[in-house]
Amino acid sequence: MDEYDVLVIGGGTGNNVAAAAAEAGLETALVEKGPLGGTCLNRGCNPSKMLIAHANRVNAVADAGRFHVDATLDGVDVPAIVEEVHGTLGDIADGMAESKRNEENLTFVNAEGQFVDDRTIRADGTEYTAEKVLVAAGTRPLVIDAIDGLTDVDYLTSSEALRLTEPPERLVVMGGGYIAAELGYYFDALGTEVALIEMEDSLLPREDEEVAERFTDIAERRHDVFTGYRVTSVSEANGTITTTAESADGDTIEVSGDELLVALGRRPNTDRIGIENTDIALDDRGFVETDDRLETNVDGVYAIGDIIGDHPFKHAADYEVEVVTENLVDGADRTVDYSGMSHAVFTEPQVAGVGRTEGQLQENGVEYVVGRAEYADAAMSRALKIDDGLVKVLASPDGELLGCHLVGHEASMLVHEATLAVRHGLSVEDVADTIHVHPSMNKVLESAFRDAASKLA
User: Fold this and answer.
1) Has this prediction a pTM greater than 0.90?
2) What are phi and psi of 171, to 5 degrees?
3) Are 240 and 256 in contact (CB under 8 A)?
4) Is 68 a catalytic residue?
5) What's the pLDDT at 26?
6) What gap in Å lies between CA 302 and CA 294, rounded to an integer?
7) pLDDT score for 238
8) Contact by Cβ (8 Å): 227, 248
C-alpha cells in the first residue's frame, strides 16, 4: 500500500486541489482514469460553448439581410469545426496530464479508482491511502432505464452529441433544461430540424417562471416544442427513432427523428467509485453530503464539484476549490457562502439569473416588489435589431435585492451587475443610482432596477 498525505479522486477541479497540496509540500496522489480537466473541459461547457460560438456565426450570416447586407451561407464544414474544437481541448488535457506527471510531490494515477475504505483507493492494482481525502469524481448524463425501450435504441447523450461530425436531419431531444436548450440551438444553426419534449409546462423549468415562458415562446419559433409531456416509450425502425409521450390529461404524441438526444440531467458518479465501501453519507439522489466546510461526515474526507449536487456549475466548483484548499491543505476553518451564485444558458438569446425566483419567494411567503424592463426599449437593442428580451428584478419592500432574472442578448454578461449586488448586499437603489454607459446594453438593467426602486415602500 502506498501512503500519502493527500489523496484526490477525480481530475476535474480536483486536480487544482492536488496541485495546491503538492505545492505546499504534501505528498499527493491524484487518481483519474479519463482526460484531466473533467466534464467541463472535455465533455461539457468548454466544447459546447466553442461549438455554440460557431452556431452564432452561422446565424449572424443568415440574419445579415435584416441589416441590408447581402450575404450568403454556402456551407458549414462541421467535421472541421468538431475536429478543431476537440483537438484544441484534447491538447490542453494532454498538456495538463504531462504537467501533473512532472510536478514535485504529486503522483498522477491515470486509472479508474475504487474506494476500499474511507481513506484508501485501489487503482490499477495498487492501493493508495491518505489521512486527508478529496472526492471530486463528478457526474455523468442521466439515462432513465424505466422508459420503455430506451436502452434498446441507439440514443445520444451530450457526450456523443458534442462530437457528431454529421448533423442529423431531425433531432428529437428528450428534456428541456439547459443542455437540451443549448444543443438544440447549436444543431438548429447547422440546419437540423429540432424537436424538444419537456414534461414541465415550459422549457428551462428551473428558471423564473416568467423568464422560462418567454424563452419557450422564443424557442417555439425555432423548434418543435412539446411541453407538458412525459416520455413513456421509445422505439426504432428503419433508422427512425420514435418517442411516445403523454400529457397529464392523457393526450399522447409521437415524435420521430433520425437521432435521439437524452438530456434529462446528470447523475453522480458515486456508484462507480466504490463509495459503498466507505461510511461517506449520500443523500437520497446519491450525491455526497458535506457540511459548510465541504467536509463529509467522515473526518478528513472532503468533497467538491458536481458530485455534491448543490450548484452544478464550473464556477461553483472553482469557488469550492478555494474553500477546500484552505481547509484541507492549510488547516483553516473556512465555510462556503453561495450567495450571489449566478448561472447562464448560452443560447441566443441567452438566459441568466441570480438569487431567488418569484415562485420561490411566493412559496416561502416573502414580500417583494417586481421591476421589469424590456430589451426592445433600449437604444442598443434598436441598433442590434433586437425585438425581444426581459430583465426582471425582485426586491424586498425595503430595497434588498432578492433576485434578478434575464432572457436576452448577452444576459450572461449583464447578470454580473446583479450578482455583485446580491453578493455584497447592495440595494436596488444602489444599482439604480449607478451611472450606466449609454447606449450600452446595461441600460436595460438600469431601467429594470429603476422600475423596482420606484415601487419600494
Assistant:
1) yes
2) -115, 125
3) yes
4) no
5) 97
6) 6
7) 93
8) no
